Amino acid sequence: MKNNRKFLTVLLTVLFVTLAACGNSSEESGVPVDNQSQSDNSTQNTNDDSSNVDSTENPSSNDNTDTDANDVDNNNANEKVDTSNNVPTKEEDPSAKTTAGLKEEYLKKLNDTEIAVEEIRKKYSDDTSTYAMKKVEGDRYDLWDALLNEIYGVLKEQLPSEEMVQLKEEQRNWIKHRDETAKEASLKYKGGTAEQLEYVAVLANLTEERCHELVEDYMK
């Protein structure tokens, strides 16, 4: 009985010593770990603070730079607008379209009208009826007569007043000559289906000639 008690006492003592040794080991190992963790956290916080300082300063300097650049661009844009407003465009400048340019323009219109007449003739080339021929000559006369009126209007603006008075009288005489000549030519076919055709054809021929004459001889 005494031996059993002695054995239990020894066993309890051994367990107590073992537990005490384990407790001391955990305490010894725990202190350095906590200190190291705190040290690492302190270092990380320090680095974070320094990075935060940098990120705050850099956007500030960038903002200032961008603002200056925008101010320069805006000033340049305003200067360009102001400068362009002071420069007259070609449409605003009354001298932009020279008389030489007008003559070249209307020489081209004469050529374009001739091309248009040829297109009309081609359109009715397969139709030899009197109606088709009248249609061709009537359309041809309309084209040249419209261009003649346009040319005459330009000359009224371009020529000095004395020359324009002379041209106006000349034009009246030409119209009388044109109508009389066409009438006389048509009388050869008096009473026939070709009478009206001849009359319009002569009107178209003389009007075409007059357009060339006014552009080439009067337009400067």
UniProtKB/TrEMBL annotation:
Residues 33-64 have a biased composition (Low complexity). Residues 25-101 are annotated as: Disordered. Residues 1-23 form the signal peptide. Residues 123-214 form the Lysozyme inhibitor LprI-like N-terminal domain. It holds the Pfam family LprI. Gene3D superfamilies: 1.20.1270.180. InterPro entries: LprI-like_N (IPR009739). PROSITE patterns: PROKAR_LIPOPROTEIN. The keyword GTP-binding does not apply. Keywords: Lipoprotein, Signal. This is Lipoprotein, putative. The lineage of its organism: Bacteria, Bacillati, Bacillota, Bacilli, Bacillales.
